[in-house]
């Protein structure tokens, strides 16, 4: 009888334990992952080649601050200058031919008949000269806005053959930045858009800054540590070019934007 009396108590105790464990499993536990992060330009202004040709000289270096109107690069103008010279010569010939026909038109029927043709040829020569002069003017690329030069490999451009519309470099407003986070592939499923991000920059490892995930990528690439990762972007207000570590999904990452830290150079590196 004593054993039978104890059995229901053990059963109730076991049931209570299972209920407690079940409730504990139902309570959501905040998860967080750690990943390397880089502060990049939010909306860089791209600079494209205005003509086909060869890049002559680069007038800026990566990270340089430029103002609107500053020269960025010059295309090789030798072919363009030759085209302008030939167009000027063709226009001079057309002007001389028109003047000769006008002078002879008073007594020569053939000259009067050629007047309309030589006028058309002169106009065509003028248009061709204007075109080549405009091409020569486009050989100098100038910045349309103030900002910081974005250029990964400055040695690649001088002497490179480029096509019209090809992207050559970028200009970034360092006041408008975002975070580029390389989330390990194994942790990517834990990241949701809108998740809070707590960032620690290498230049100030004791200061945590807040951001929030705005976009998840889908392409897998290798991080500097050769870890398969996917890019996740987060928004805040800070400077372009600095790197550090990001804790994605931490509860203390929520709540407001980060204060803007002092200006930092592009390319500073670190680890999370």
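Sequence proposed for the structure above (272 residues):
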């Amino acid at each position: 009888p004593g054993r039978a009396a104890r059995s229901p108590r053990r059963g109730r105790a076991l049931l209570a334990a299972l209920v407690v464990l079940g409730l504990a499993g139902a309570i959501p536990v905040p998860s967080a992952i750690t990943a390397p992060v880089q502060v990049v330009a939010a909306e860089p202004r791209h600079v494209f080649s205005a003509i086909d040709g060869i890049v002559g000289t680069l007038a800026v270096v990566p990270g340089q601050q430029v103002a609107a109107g500053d020269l960025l690069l010059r295309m090789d103008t030798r072919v363009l200058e030759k085209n302008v010279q030939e167009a000027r010569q063709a226009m001079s010939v057309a002007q001389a031919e028109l003047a000769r026909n006008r002078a002879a038109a008073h007594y020569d029927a053939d000259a009067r008949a050629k007047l309309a043709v030589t006028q058309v040829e002169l106009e065509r020569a003028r248009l061709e000269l204007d075109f080549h002069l405009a091409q020569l003017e486009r050989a100098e690329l100038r910045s349309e806005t103030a900002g910081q030069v974005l250029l990964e490999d400055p040695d690649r451009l001088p002497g490179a053959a480029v096509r019209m519309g090809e992207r050559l470099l970028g200009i970034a407003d360092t006041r408008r930045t975002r975070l580029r986070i390389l989330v390990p592939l194994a942790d990517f499923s834990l990241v949701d858009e809108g998740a809070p991000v707590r960032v620690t920059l290498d230049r100030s490892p004791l200061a945590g800054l807040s951001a929030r995930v705005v976009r998840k990528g889908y392409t897998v690439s290798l991080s500097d540590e050769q870890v398969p990762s996917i890019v996740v972007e987060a928004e805040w207000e800070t400077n372009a070019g600095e790197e550090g570590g990001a804790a994605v999904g931490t509860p203390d990452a929520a709540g407001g934007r980060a204060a803007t830290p002092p200006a930092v150079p592009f390319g500073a590196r670190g680890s999370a």
